[in-house]
Every structure is written in C-alpha cells, then in structure tokens.
Design a protein that fits this description.
Layout lengths: L12 H11 L12 H9 L2 H21 L14
C-alpha cells in the first residue's frame, strides 16, 4: 500500500506542517504526581494497616497502664535491643 504523501524517506515538510496544525504535537500529557499525604492515606486505609496500627496503640496503652507514666518507673533501657 503506497500513500501519496508518504515518500520512502518520511513525510514532506508540507505534510508535517499540515499534520502539526491539524493534530498538534504527538506528546502525552504527563500525569500529576500523587501527593505524599494521599499515598500515606491509601496505605493507612488498608484493613491490615488499620489492624496493625490498632495493635500498636493497644500495646502502647497497656504498657503505659501497667508501668504507669511516672518517670521513676519507666525504664527505657528495658526496651533496648
């Protein structure tokens, strides 16, 4: 199949100008990046993340309730590795 405006070496300058005027540049519009807060929200709204977050909160509450908030009774060296 041979088109009259498609020579073997490509489009003519006139054909290129006509195509640019008619259709514009052959470029994709870049998608806007997803904001960090939305990435965090999408991750944290997952059920497994919510369960883990609840477990951390409950463990923290129980540890503080058991040991109290008094500085004399809270030994942070106990939590070191």
């Amino acid at each position: 199949m041979h088109h009259s405006n498609l020579p073997e070496s490509g489009l003519t300058t006139t054909a290129v100008t006509t195509q640019l005027t008619k259709f514009g540049k052959n470029e994709l519009v870049a998608a806007r990046p997803v904001p960090l807060w939305r990435k965090i929200w999408q991750h944290m709204s997952d059920v497994s993340s919510l369960v883990l977050l609840f477990a951390v909160g409950l463990a923290t509450y129980l540890a503080l309730a058991q040991n109290g908030l008094d500085k004399d009774h809270c030994d942070w060296r106990h939590f070191s590795y």
